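Quick question: what would this complex look like in 3D?
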Amino acid sequence: MEITFGIGMVFAGAAIASALGFAGSAIGMGYAGSAGSAVTSERPELFGRILLMQALPGSQGIYGLVGAFLILNFAGILGGGEETVISSFTGLQFLMTGIPIGVAGFFSGIFQGMVSASGITMIAKDETLIARAIILSAMVETWAIFGLLISFILLTAM
Amino acid sequence: MALLKMKKIKLAFHKESAQPAMEALQKLGALEFSEITDKEKLKKNEKTEFELNYISSRLDHSVSFLSKYEKKSFFRDIFEGMRTEVGEKEMQDVINNFYYNEIIERVYNVIENINKAEAKLEELKSEKELLELWFNLDIKLSAPRETKNTRTLFLSGETCDIDNFLNKISKDIVSMRPNENSLAIIFLKSNERKIRETISSYKLGEVELPKRRGAPEEECERIGRAMKKAGSRLNAYHRLAESLTKHLPKLRVVSDYIHWRKKRFDLVHESYGTEESMVFEGWCPEKALPVLKKELSRKTKLFAMEEIETKEEPPVEIMNPPALKPFEAVTRLYGLPTAKDLDPTPYLAGFFFIFFGICLSDVGYGVLITSFTLSLLLLFNLNPGMSSFIKLLMAGGISSIIAGVIFGGYFGIDPSLLPEFAQRLQYFDPINSPLPIFYLALILGIIQVIMGMILSILRDAQNNNLKEGLAKNIPWLLLFASLALWAGSSSDVIPAIIIPDYIWLIYTSLALIILSGAFLYKGNIFAKAFMGFLNLYNSVGYLSDVLSYSRLLALGLATSALAFSVNLIAGMAYEAVPYVGFLLMIIILVVGHIFNLVVNILAAFIHTARLQFVEFFGKFISGSGRQFKPFYREERNIFLKRP
């Protein structure tokens, strides 16, 4: 495969989609995790539920991964033939498709982490509230999912 | 299968039969006592309470102390805990014939001696550390620190501070400096004030040396000898403790038995009663009531039992056939459903099985998990919670083998290098064409979300709310169905002959959604209209629910991508490093794949569980049920052989 400017742009798109999602999830899970360790030290029996709450802001990273794979797949780089030719303009389009999931994942990951952290303190006080804590946290995730959706629609529209 | 129906009952015993009756109840473990709040409770006998607590805590302490000395294999310790297996009859024998008081006395003696020896060692060690700083001091420690006219002080401080101090005041003192940071001085008491002021102005600290006989050097040696002696004494006590571990199995039996007795005692005094009788209230599964009655009547004739009608929220317990039992762990992790909900376990089991497999999708890893969990189950006597979790993991392993065959995952080896039969079985290719799996994940998501809606209708029907349940869910089910038809026909999967234009079906379901939103809201006509249109907004929720299942694709991909990279790095090591390359390759393969396996099991479990909790449970249960906690024989230090 000859590396052209267009292909470079595709790579940039995949990189934006995944790296921003990963970073957002990492920050978010960090917030939730530190709240979780504090609660676990007091009530170790809640560890399972706390782990679940901490895992919630991890979705953005996964959506980023899905996005990156889809971009590489649609561009024909994954599983494509040897002669993948991508013009600079098409490459730019691929770059753009990485932005919705990347940016939405980054910010929603961070904020979902904050909501998860408060959810963990909520569970610490009353563990039967876990369903509500999950719902509150999952509301934030909606926007990362929409990011993924738009990225996907942009890809199919090309 | 499903939630156990609970009944609240009232039990009355004659006082004399209370003990055997309570014993029978505890053995059966099917009754949760509830506190009686509106009547005056029976008084506790404080002396008995004190004695029970005293014996129980001494037994527990002895068991936990001796357990440290018991030799057990590492794995057995992790998976079984420090417990002794015992049969019902054996237990009775031990309780009747074992004189534990004498053993406890001996154990406590050893504990005390060990504590003393350790404290002595600690004291000697800190004295020695202090004296080592004054090692070269040529004064006997027994020499008086004070005479009629002079005083001796031992000082410590920074090197330069001591230098300056000596320069300033050397005329008035006799000094000895065993090392850079220590100084012994002798001075006339008439100068004391001046000297003390100088000492504090140079920030020197006064040191209290231990009151011993000889000079520090001599004493250090003596302390060394004493430490050796104390150390060997400590060792002797440790060996004594080790020899006492032979009583551990019996002690464990007694400690649990006394613990149960204590629990019974606590309960008896939660009841109310008359001079001759005792009355209890509690929850019992309806199915267990006849057994309860039978067991009680075997012990005593003097009891009465009746059911009570109550509006209280009953405690919740779920019960499933053995094949589904492991999946209860998932439900319990979330929290039990309330008495009005359905037990989600049978409905989530299939999805959990499939999703876990897709998330891992590797035959090699699946075989590893299955064989590991199977050997744990065969080799160890696991407690019920642990064993059901291990079985859940084993189900995940099996599912991962199946998914691995379909997705062509074999330790991340490139599918084109696989033998032909494996290639023929492979139906999806995640790396080269992820899109079909993406769609598969979404379709599975749609199926589970629809299932959730159906269960929501069932739940409402069970609670006499069928109309609302239908109004809430049917329009959405219709929308899903019509969208599926539309998608099917526009991609030529379904021939477009039955209904020419599916778009009208979609419009109809949208209209129904608005109408149902209006129907469900209680208010004036304008509010109803507004809520109707707002109901359309829920489509956002359903859309995000379905898209969330795309994580199945991502997690499966992540497993194979990581496994692939481990193989790549190992291959590079083999080619690049001479002589030991092969060894290095093996190490990288083993460590890398184990790491990948552990990380991905965790991710697969958490995300599969999350799909159940957020996307599935959210539709029909709340998870705020109160766990049924029967009065039972808690096996802390033993496990009873079940016949």
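Answer marked as accepted. Chain A touches chain B at residues 48-49, 51-52, 55-56, 58-59, 62-63, 65-66, 69-70, 73, 78-79, 127-131, 134-135, 138, 141-142, 145-146, 148-149 (CB under 8 Å).
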